[in-house]
Amino acid sequence: MWISFGSAWGDAKIKVNWHDGSNWSAAVDLNVTQAGGRVHNGAKLPTSTQKIAIGRVRKSASDTEDDIPVSWLLQVAEA
Predict the structure, then answer these.
(1) Residues 37, 79 contacting (CB under 8 angstroms)
(2) Order of strands across the sheet with 39-40?
(3) Cα gap 30→15, rounded to integer Å
(4) Are the beta carbons of 9 and 35 closer than 8 angstroms?
(5) Residue 7 CB neighbour total at 10 angstroms
(6) What pLDDT score was predicted for residue 66?
(7) What is the mean pLDDT of residues 48-63?
(8) How far apart are the first and last CA of the chain?
(9) CA angle at residue 14 from 24 to 7, to 5 degrees?
């Protein structure tokens, strides 16, 4: 299972982590840019993943653009 993110209306920073049924992973910060391609954390999610938490965080202390949506794509491949 893989998850990736994209943005069309501006740049955003998000925080992502996943739960395997027992523990949460370390949070990963991702910068999702309007001009860039899809962004992912570079690794396949563990097969035990049960929940994914995604939240927008400020790019800087002066970031006030909370209306930039970030799309996500979850890809699941079964063996």
Answers:
(1) no
(2) 39-40, 2-6, 71-75
(3) 6
(4) no
(5) 20
(6) 74
(7) 88
(8) 11
(9) 135
Model's pTM, two decimal places? 0.78
- Please give the Cα distance from 27 to 67 (Å, whole number): 22
Segment 23-37, tens digit of pLDDT: 999 999 999 999 988
| CA gap 50, 15 in Å, rounded | 17
Give the model's confidence band at 42: pLDDT under 50 very low, under 70 low, under 90 confident, else very high. low
pLDDT greater at residue 7 or residue 79: 7
DSSP string, 19-77: E-SS-BPPPEEEEE-SSS--EE-SSPPPTT--EEEEEEE-SSTT---TT---EEEEE--
